[in-house]
Amino acid sequence: MTQPTGPAAKQAVRHDAMRARNLALVLGEVAARGSLTRAALSEITGLTKTTVSKLVADLIEAGLVVEAGTVRAGERGRPGMEVRISGERVAAVGLEINVDYLSVRLVDLARSVRLRRTQAVDNRTARPVEVIAALRDLALGLVDEAVDIGLQVVGGVLAVPGPVDLATGVVHNAPNLGWREVPVPELLRLPFPVRVENEANLAALGELWFGSGPPDFLYVSGEIGIGAGLVVRGRLFRGARGFAGELGHVVVSPDGPPCRCGARGCLERYAGQDALLTATAAEDLTELVTLLEAGDPRALAACERAGRALGVALSSAVNLVDPDTIVLGGIFARLFPWLADTVTGMLAARLGQMRSAVPPLVVSQLGTEAAALGAAGQVIQQVIADPTASLPT
Amino acid sequence: MTQPTGPAAKQAVRHDAMRARNLALVLGEVAARGSLTRAALSEITGLTKTTVSKLVADLIEAGLVVEAGTVRAGERGRPGMEVRISGERVAAVGLEINVDYLSVRLVDLARSVRLRRTQAVDNRTARPVEVIAALRDLALGLVDEAVDIGLQVVGGVLAVPGPVDLATGVVHNAPNLGWREVPVPELLRLPFPVRVENEANLAALGELWFGSGPPDFLYVSGEIGIGAGLVVRGRLFRGARGFAGELGHVVVSPDGPPCRCGARGCLERYAGQDALLTATAAEDLTELVTLLEAGDPRALAACERAGRALGVALSSAVNLVDPDTIVLGGIFARLFPWLADTVTGMLAARLGQMRSAVPPLVVSQLGTEAAALGAAGQVIQQVIADPTASLPT
Where is the HTH marR-type domain (chains A, B) (predicted)? Predict the structure, then answer.
């Protein structure tokens, strides 16, 4: 196609780009501050009140913000009508494939979790196409229910337990699922765009947006595998290829037991769910917790060993990335009472002399829901960063 | 003091803020693209030609840019005069305290290295005040020489081999210097502001700005200590407290030999300069290289051991931060021929199955000068990011 290129067309392109930038600016401020009057928005953004009113009208029409009631700002002046993010029109889907469950979450633009569906499965015995088909059914059911409550799904993000090629969504190797080179997006084919990302990264974002996460922390996701997500000033650190945070394969002992990843002595071999269950002959995590509560020596010794290994790997992580806080999530949240002292002691022993403060260790508030919530939250961030895509042109 | 607060004063504040932003915008584009006409700057920034001309005039007057010759842009139109960053007025000082040398570098705003002074010392046997006084003398001599060639020093950054509190410049603990809680800035007192930062971080930035560094890499600084600087999309990753990149204390073997940092089995104990010299009975690095060139079995075995340990620690680093490339600098640059195969082999063995690509290992082009150049480069970046501080008001 030939594009018009004269001065008028150029001016129109500039005007559209400016409008998109200003819409994002206004929506971003409303999202960050909860609710604001048009006058306050004009003050903050430096845009004129007329421009702000026009932009707010467009955002209201698109269902992205709503009027929220009047406030009187300061002593003088007319009371203003505040606007806030609307939870009534636009929604996002967070999806997760893990080793032993599938889950989907519907979250509205105001970050309320509206619908939850989880399905227990054993994805190690199923083929990738079967797993993805089951997830597709779960998600389509959720979308139908979303429509019933007046919500329109604008996008989704899928969490998988392994490194993902962010450009293509291909899962190169998820050893705990037994997946290699699985082209997830083309198999999933949902009626909205879906990006694929690593589970631990998304769980970290879940903790940031839906939990009690401070703006700088290393989130540790204990599952059958162990991953980590580093959040820096409220943003996820992904690394050059999106493969950062593979804490489970950090070296605890270079000549230790062989790992599914091909290396030896990785953290996962000492502190992953399978290592813990095998060492204690427990059927599942609930049984392990019961044993620990009963003071079973073998269970306590396995947690001690896992805690020491976690402390070693985390001391390497602190030396490399210097997080403000360490948040233990996934199975480590349930095992926190039996891990915390060992991990904290190891961190103090290895880091205490070099640093004025060793990062505190805290427990995640979200448990296994963190990744799916972080996934939905990413879609919401995207809408807020670029609302033009959700507006009628 | 009482600030005027009426609408006129508010407008003046807004105008000043806008001018500062626009000056930074114009100077940043010139710095990023080498040289540009005023017309091209107007096109890129969206500012009017009149505004651009006024901003460029201010930058020329401040000595930050100069006119560089005429070009004819495209087929039609008048030829335009290009402007580029000026190397004739403003300069920065990069300083370094290392275990066995002091160095200062004078770099102009166009990033040419104008003066170099290095002094061999043994800072382990001297008190911090003596070391800092010697550095002060070296720097003051350099500033005098800068004045003689018409350059005005606007600031400096000092590299030290250990973690630094970025807010105060206090070196909490630099075990290889034997320093604890040294308030460097108040001891140094130079006639321009000086920030203090970790040596490896600054060496990474030196590699980025003055070497052949790609925009995403992990720079490994081998000295008596071992540090690393992670550069992500052209920016240094510092961590929550500025202590990221302590690769020397990443765990190679959790029950290995005790390290000066208080932990055991840290990388530094296997691959630091002292470990290498002790294992080979070499006096210094030059002697070690001579032994390696002669095929001395003990020297070769020590490099093999260091390379394996470096491979283990770097595989943990790649798992955690996923750098695009690994750059070996400092003593590892000189030892590269005897380390590279072992390190590469270890990375492939530990990472190859999980990742479609293992980060390539390359050698630094700058050697021991990297940190001081990165330090000066930081001052230059600061001037370009906020030129208003260098302008007459």
Answer: 25-67
Co-location of B268 and B299 in the same domain: yes
- Contacts A230 to B, Cβ<8 Å: 320
Q: Which residue of A has its CA nearest to B357?
A: A241
- Domain finish residue from B57, B85, B113: B85
B324 contacts in chain A (CB < 8 Å): 240-241
H-type alpha helices, chain A: 7-33, 38-45, 49-61, 128-148, 184-188, 199-210, 268-271, 273-280, 285-293, 297-321, 331-334, 336-351, 370-385
Same domain, yes or no: B118 and B248: no
B353 and A173 in contact by Cβ < 8 A? yes
Chain A partners of B214 at a C-beta cutoff of 8 Å? Answer: none
Which residues have a Cβ under 8 Å from the Cβ of B62 and sit 6 or more positions away?
B89, B387, B390, B391, B392
Residues of A (130-169) whose Cβ lies below 8 Å from B: 163, 165
Domain termination residue (choose one: B50, B85, B120)? B85
Q: Can you count the helices (H) and strands (E) in chain B?
A: 13, 15
Domain containing residue B238 = 212-365
Task: Kindly report the nearest CA distance between residue B140 and chain A, in angstroms.
Answer: 32
For residues B15 and A186, what is the distance between their CA atoms, to the nearest angstrom? Answer: 52
pLDDT in tens, chain B (393 residues): 445 566 677 777 777 888 899 999 999 999 999 899 999 999 998 899 999 999 999 999 999 999 987 776 555 556 778 999 999 999 999 999 988 899 999 999 999 999 999 999 888 888 999 999 999 999 999 999 999 999 999 999 999 988 788 788 888 878 778 898 899 988 999 999 999 998 999 999 999 999 876 889 999 999 888 999 999 988 899 898 888 999 999 999 999 999 988 999 999 999 999 999 999 999 989 999 999 999 999 999 999 999 999 999 999 999 999 999 999 999 999 999 999 999 999 999 999 887 778 999 999 988 889 999 999 999 999 999 999 887 654
> Looking at the domain assignment, is residue B2 inside a domain?
no
DSSP string computed for A34-81: SEEEHHHHHHHH---HHHHHHHHHHHHHTTSEEEEEEE--SSSS--EE
Beta bridge partners of B242: none
Structural domain includes residue B265: yes
Token pair listed for B48 = 């009017």
Task: Assess if residue B232 is contained within a domain.
Answer: yes
If asked whether residues A279 and A344 sit together in one domain, one would say yes
ipTM > 0.90 (yes/no): no
Within a domain: A55: yes
Element (H, E) at B146: helix B128-148
Q: Which residue of A has its CA nearest to B18?
A: A46
Reported as a single tens digit per residue, the pLDDT across A89-132 is: 999 999 999 888 999 999 999 999 999 999 998 888 889 999 99
Interchain contact A254–B (C-beta under 8 A): yes
Min Cα distance B180 → chain A (Å) is 9
A288 contacts A300 by C-beta, under 8 angstroms = no
Residue A35 sits in the same domain as residue A73: yes
Q: What is the DSSP string of B6-30?
A: SHHHHHHHHHHHHHHHHHHHHHHHH
Instruction: Yes or no: say if A207 and A366 are a contact pair by the CB < 8 Å rule.
Output: yes
The set of long-range contacts for B76-82, using a CB threshold of 8 Å and a minimum separation of 24, is B77/B39, B80/B37, B80/B38, B80/B39, B80/B40, B81/B37, B81/B38, B82/B35, B82/B36, B82/B37
